[in-house]
Amino acid sequence: IGDMIVSLLGVVAVFISAVVIDKIFLGGTRAFVCEIVSDRYAEINRQIIEKMQRTTTVIEVLGGYSGEKKIMLKVSFTMREYASLMSVISGCDRGAFVTIHRAHEINGEGWTY
After folding, report:
1. Domains, the chain, ordered by start
2. Does 63 or 28 have the greater pLDDT score?
């Protein structure tokens, strides 16, 4: 019975550590903003809207090194939607340039962060 208690305490300690790390590194934030630069932006955009029921912002950008005009998609999402978003992006364009930022506050229809 002593081994079971030690094991249970270990599981509790791991859970508490995970929660504390989440609060320290993510500040408890559950909302993020993703910026996607891809030549396949139209397909990625369509799938984000259809599969995730999220809207995007489409922004024309200029490559700093190449000088090429590109399209960047910007989408806000929750931590629970991370896997779905990455699946959509990689399914359309494995070479897409993707950055993800923590959102400290999001206001607007569908958001209360």
Report:
1. 29-112 (3.30.70.120)
2. 63
